[in-house]
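User: I'm putting together notes for a lab meeting next week and I want to include a structural view of one of the chains we've been expressing. I don't have a solved structure, so I'd like a prediction I can at least talk through. The sequence is below, exactly as it appears in our construct file.
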Amino acid sequence: MAGTATAMPLQQLIASFDKTQLPKILEVCSGVYYQGSVYELSGTEMCLSTGDLIKVIDTELSSVTCEDNSNNDKFELPINYRGLFKMVPEDIPYSTVEEMLSLRPAGLGSWLPFTFTSHCEVSVDSITLEARTKVTVLSVEQVEGHEGRVRCHVKGHQGALVEVMIPFSCRGEFYECESNDVFTLKEIMSSPYMCTRRFCLTNATTHNQPLVLSPVYQVQAIMHLRKTVVKFSSNLEVDVVDVTERCKEMNFISPLTLGEVLSQPDEVFPTMAEVLENPENHALFCTSWLPKIRKGCQLVLHSKGNSAMVLASSRKGRKAQQFFLISQQYNGQFKKSPREFKSVYELYVAFAGTPGLTVSVTSNIEEQEEDGIPILSVGDQLEVVRCEKAKSACGDSKGQKQTTEVLVCRLLQDLDENDDEEEEVEKDESEELSLPLYMQCHFVEKISDKKKYRLKDLVKKLTLPVNVKVVSRESKSETDPLCGLTSLRLEEATLEPNIQASLPNSLQHCFGIPARWLSMTIFLTKDPLPWPKEQPPKCQVESVTEVTQSFYYEFCKRTSSGDLPPPLPPKPNQFTSSNPSKKASSKPSKKKSPERETPEHPPDSTRSNLLIKHLHNMSITYKKRPLAPPPPVNITHGELYKKLKSFDYFCIVPLNVVWQQLLKKPCLSLMQV
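Assistant: Thanks for the context. Below is the predicted structure for the 673-residue chain, given as structure tokens.
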């Protein structure tokens, strides 16, 4: 509590302040609610608890509270209310003229003339003022060394005005008279004297009783642990006490998020800070410094800015895959390593950023003429030429050719290095293959670039993503987490806003706090920096930050450019079968698609016609397996039906359809079916 200081309602204390006296520090003594009060003001919730300190920095008149003392009725009027008010005379007797004048405002000249009356006779010099006589004060005359007097007008019996000089010491029972002057709310609120008087509305229909007018201010204040200036109304029902003299040296803490720290001017740094809340999103980083940052921890903030970084991932293998954010200031060296592609679409995406891309096939592909897939062998070398649209070999249900995107590649031949003439001829005659983008095949990139690159040079020259290997570690770092990795995939370059910081007990070890990915609250203290003036320590900044798989996926989700997924293969015809031919050579076969045979007998219906049309070219099972032995010569129809029923699980054509065709055409053998 505030000791012996007198507590006052907040509205009364704020109204007594002059703007020139601000700022003022107030302490909350009590409120409407036990140990605190909560208010919802303009969508902002604030809580005033007992013992809270409020530093009032500004006030602005917003409205006026009008209270009718006869029935305790209250209502509020805006400060720009256009109605007029008349002052209600106070029903208080004054014993002397001096007492009556002393209660008038300091600038008495602006309140003249005013009228009063005496309930008893008053004799002034040779003039006697009868009871109930109205006296109008015109001016006040004070001469040094003499008693002050007021110059007044009094109406005589015949209506003539008589001038009377009444001394301050004149005694009687004086009362104010009602005035015909009217005032606006702004005029009343601009005078501290008028704010203490009662008024009546001139054209009132409902509120015709005397009203007590109280100003309501919009208060701007600073509170502990509030990010912004607090705004609240002065008519909150709390009691406060003025503790400005006792707490004038006190500093009010303003919490800052990492984003707000980044917006601070450069002149603020370096500075000391204290952590108010534990950082969130621990699961995104695998660092040694993050577990040390806790509530109440002291930090040295050296600088802030944007750092050019590269997101990288290690190769999947026996060890768990690792992910890193690497600063482009990393001074280790890299060599380009071959990339692996699992589909033609991945090859197409890489070709968009790497013209003249050459790859080697690492998986055999059998020819599928209906789908437009050529034959490929392990070791075949392809040079990607272009991407174009082509019509597929198979048609849709209406027999129309479908258009699909293909990657045109040149099939390269293995030649002797000294045979230059033959190489030129073969290059001209080399065959071009069209690979559909939906085709699944494994490729590996052929690398001819053996140069060593710094990371910032590599990002400028090559298009990411790219596979690299660390060939020389960073010289500044004692432990380089990138050393020993067989391969590293540089995924994407990014610009990360961060704050360079260190712990007071290890100033030389500096780390970057990523403001976009960590959520924590700090406040800037005025503590001295932990080094001699103008002698900052040499800081070693971490250039590699290990992150988790969760960070990798979240990063990809935020930076996704909305690329379309790989294309799907065209929908084949309903009764087109795929008969992959055997591989004869490394070049694609140029055989034409076999024509369909015409049935010997005319069909009974469309469905039976289509079935008979394909019976000779269908196998019983989906998988390749030895042919079943022919049935005995003397087999009966019942035994034959049991044999067929045993193949029902593997049959492509329903069993009842096959049985009906056998009954119509007994010459068909089981193998033909």
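A couple of points you could mention at the meeting. The chain has five domains: 8-82+213-247, 90-177, 255-338+459-573, 339-446, 606-664. The first helix runs from residue 10 to 15.

User: Perfect, that's what I needed.
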